[in-house]
Amino acid sequence: FGIKPGDPVNADTIVAGEARLKTVVGEEGFPFAKVGDPQIVVDRAARTATLDLSVDPGSPRRYGRIVMANDKLFDAKHVQEIAR
Hints:
Ubiquitin-like (UB roll); alpha+beta
């Protein structure tokens, strides 16, 4: 995810971590996972922030061999290489 306890709050880091999380969850077999919006609670007195990011992975999916009906642009081997 790229964010560790004690890291400063940085919107760019949070957005990049969220994108990485979505990619990794999909690569792990959950292509329809839903990642919620980040919720950040800042406690100025304690000088801390809490990040909450919900993930609903949905059901796992397993895909087999890719078959192309029309391979004029890309063949099945190429599509398999670029597939998630």
